[in-house]
Design goal:
The chain is an alpha+beta fold and about 100 residues long. The chain has one domain. The protein has a two-stranded antiparallel sheet. Strand 3 and strand 4 form a beta hairpin. The N and C termini lie far apart (about 35 Å).
């Protein structure tokens, strides 16, 4: 997906766009996005707000690294994980949740 001028004006960043890219679970083959993973499968996990660099499958709960499906190296994996973790943390703060199970 290409980041358009309209998307930029709405506040969409390249990192946010990357979190919506589909990834495939290596175990069961389900396709989902990192955003869905954090919002559904990682809800309440303490690692979800503290630098977790894994994606968790919505169906089978398999955890696997972001490197490969979404990023090319460890540094970009960390940047993407930190970005997504900040989104989750800010959401939890805005609704009064602790972010742990």
């Amino acid at each position: 997906m290409v980041l358009t001028d309209h998307m930029r004006q709405a506040g969409v960043t390249p990192a946010l766009l990357k979190t919506t890219k589909k990834i495939t679970c290596p175990r069961c083959g389900l396709e989902f996005s990192l955003f869905q993973s954090r919002a559904i499968a990682c809800t309440g996990c303490p690692k979800a707000s503290y630098g977790c660099q894994l994606a968790r499958c919505l169906r089978c709960d398999t955890e696997f690294p972001l490197e490969g499906p979404l990023t090319k190296d460890w540094q970009r994996q960390k940047l993407l994980a930190d970005y997504m973790n900040n989104i989750v943390s800010n959401y939890n703060k805005s609704v009064g949740k602790k972010g742990t199970r």
